[in-house]
Specification:
The protein folds into four domains: about 5-130, Rossmann fold (3-Layer(aba) Sandwich); about 145-260, 2-Layer Sandwich (Transcription Regulator spoIIAA), CATH 3.30.750; about 260-380, Transcription Regulator spoIIAA (2-Layer Sandwich); about 385-440, Nucleic acid-binding proteins (OB fold (Dihydrolipoamide Acetyltransferase, E2P)), CATH 2.40.50. Helix content is about 35%, strand content about 20%. It contains 13 helices and 19 strands. Helix 7 packs parallel to helix 8 (about 220-230). The protein is globular, with a radius of gyration of 23 Å. The chain starts with a strand and ends with a strand. Bound molecules: iron/sulfur cluster (SF4). Iron/sulfur cluster (SF4) binds near residues 158, 161, 202, 203 and 241.
Length: about 450
């Protein structure tokens, strides 16, 4: 019987894409995907440590596998990703989860085949977590979840050390992939039928700063070269740190047709005082001017953001500053979170006198205002025709198909027999909700 694998992924798109590499490595070893976790011969948890909730869920999932491991001792259970880069978590796994056979870090992904071999031949648990920045391993096999769109990592790590964030400690310093490797990967994807790529990095705006020798590269140039040199039809990217968003990039977003009209620009707080505590290195006013400039030069662009509520020391006045800025900028959408302390970060040591109830109240207020704004933004599409990349059957809206337009809006439409995932189609928008648009496919325009 062929061996099977099951991967559970927590966290951001970087992790989702890393799991595609894990799946590619397992496929190269002859494994195939299991549809149920109980059928797998190797189970991997690709973990996230950005919020406590993700860690708790991971341990809950691992705990539920104890009986399976007892019934099938040959089953390999592995944990990898950001969580296990923290020595405290490795110690916890060693002590409390003896049936976890394999632990490997974010810099050790490429070693998966040899680590599995070690587990199988030694019969004992294998732990391999490098704490230095990993080299960039090109040409690892990738088993992609979709055929018409793809993630493409352009850089790894982060140099920013925002006070609340664990990422620089678990993903290392910034390392950019060589532009020729990125361009070659995208052209290969185009040959395989991919229409849309999303370029990934913790802060894509820093792309190229660490590349030495040869020509100077930055993110705006990379976007332009991808647009000119490859036949990809749509380019997205995430994530952008506001302090590094250059004028050159604003111009490229406004003028390069293949770059989607959507920018995710994390605000985190609308209070300069809190932004300083967060070590974000921009002020409320600088962010405000940046957002205005982006919208001026690119009026059709959709802006989305991340906001943390209840950062240690955030007072009522700071929160009101955030609300006011959110209303003024008018985001198309926002990911809003209550601050979650992460051991080892500067913010975890800060005094935090604000009660949980107060933070929840603030979060609810922020979400209410943002949802009202999102609805108005979406309603503005009613009566327009928008180009949609077809994804297929809607997960949330049975009987409908879905796709996304350039502004990254989720668009529902009735299924049409001649359409298939990957088609770029015109859709006439007839209604809107806070999170979605609904329309009709226009067979001719
Ligand atoms: S830019 Fe800040 S929030 Fe983003 S990954 Fe780096 S340290 Fe974390």
């Amino acid at each position: 019987m062929p061996q099977k694998y099951f991967i559970t992924t927590f966290g951001c798109q970087m992790n989702v894409h890393d799991s595609e590499t894990l799946a590619g490595l397992l496929t190269s070893l002859g494994y195939s995907p299991a549809s149920l976790i109980e059928e797998a011969d190797i189970i991997l948890f690709n973990t996230c440590c950005v919020r406590e909730n993700a860690e708790n869920r991971t341990y809950g999932n691992i705990g539920a596998l104890k009986a399976l491991k007892q019934a099938r001792p040959e089953l390999i259970i592995g944990m990898c990703g950001c969580m296990v880069q923290q020595p405290s978590e490795v110690a916890k796994i060693k002590q409390s989860y003896p049936y976890v056979d394999l632990v490997f870090g974010t810099h050790n992904l490429h070693q998966l085949p040899e680590l599995i071999h070690k587990v199988q031949t030694s019969g004992s648990r294998v732990i391999e977590v490098w704490d230095t920045d990993g080299a960039i391993y090109e040409d690892l096999p990738i088993r992609r979840a979709e055929t018409f769109r793809a993630w493409v990592t352009i850089m790894y790590g982060c140099n920013n050390f925002c006070a609340y964030c664990i990422v620089p400690y678990v993903r290392g310093r910034e390392r950019s992939r060589k532009p020729e490797q990125i361009l070659a990967e995208i052209q290969d994807l185009v040959r395989d039928g991919v229409k849309e790529i999303t370029l990934l990095g913790q802060n894509v705006n820093s792309y190229g700063k660490d590349l030495t020798g040869g020509e100077r590269w930055n993110f705006a140039r990379l976007l332009r070269e991808i647009a000119y040199q490859t036949d990809i039809q749509r380019i997205r990217f995430q994530t952008s740190h506001p302090k590094d968003l250059s004028d050159d990039l604003i111009e490229t977003l406004a003028t390069e047709a293949k770059v989607c009209r959507h920018l995710h620009l994390p605000l985190q707080s609308g209070s300069t005082r809190v932004l300083q505590l967060m070590n974000r290195r921009y002020t409320r006013e600088q962010y405000r001017q940046l957002a205005a400039e982006i919208k001026n030069r690119n009026p059709g662009i959709a802006l989305t953001t991340d906001i943390i509520v209840g950062f240690p020391g955030e007072l009522e006045g700071d929160f009101q500053d955030t609300l006011a800025l959110v209303s003024e900028i008018g985001y198309d959408g926002a990911f809003t979170f209550i601050y979650s302390p992460r051991l080892g970060t500067p913010a975890a040591k800060m005094a935090d006198p604000v009660s949980e109830a107060e933070k929840k109240r603030h979060l609810a207020e922020l979400m209410k205002i943002q949802n009202q704004i999102s609805l108005v933004k979406n309603q503005a599409f009613i009566g327009t025709v928008t180009e949609v990349l077809v994804e297929g059957v809607s997960e949330r809206n049975p009987g409908m198909w879905s796709g996304r337009n350039s502004q990254n809006k989720l668009v529902h439409f009735k299924p049409v027999s001649q359409l298939k995932p990957g088609n770029l189609i015109p859709v006439s928008i007839i209604s809107a909700t806070t999170f979605t648009l609904e329309g009709e496919f226009l067979s001719s325009v």
